[in-house]
Write a structure and sequence with these properties.
The N and C termini lie far apart (41 Å). The protein has 180 residues and is mostly helical.
Length: 180
Amino acid sequence: MLLWQLFKTFFIIGLVSFGGGYAIIPVIQTEVLRHEWMTPQQFTDMIAIAGMSPGPIATNSAVLVGYSMANLKGAVVSALGILLPSVILVLIIALAFQKLHHHPIVKSVFYGLRPIVVSLIIYSAIKFAVSNGLVSLDASFHTISLIVICGLSLFALLKLRWNPVYVIILSGLVGIALYS
């Protein structure tokens, strides 16, 4: 029953989620918490691992959730669930896209989807921050230091054009220095 629930949940997520892995995170979070497969803190830790691991974050997340619930079988079933809709949809779209990609309505649909992808990514970041106590109204050292790390990370990525791997490593080292 659990394996079927994992497959079905991740299949639906894979079927209805557009915009790439980071845009899917809020949907995965909602389902994982609704099924009580993880606590919000466990989910945030899992996303951190999934994001730093090679491969797509959505697939990595599905594998980690599945593994935490049903070991290797859960990981495989969850991965199949989240990947299968994409494979099916991409094959169908590839067949139709060659004929329709120049159509003005198709272009308009894709243009209209771009802002929602950005919105979902921002929503995901804010929801993580709030649900895990990373953002609060107090001006404690912890809150201020997290905001500074976030701001400096964005500065390093956007302005200095640092490789994200270096920013992740440096942020982890800063975390050790500040919070150990």
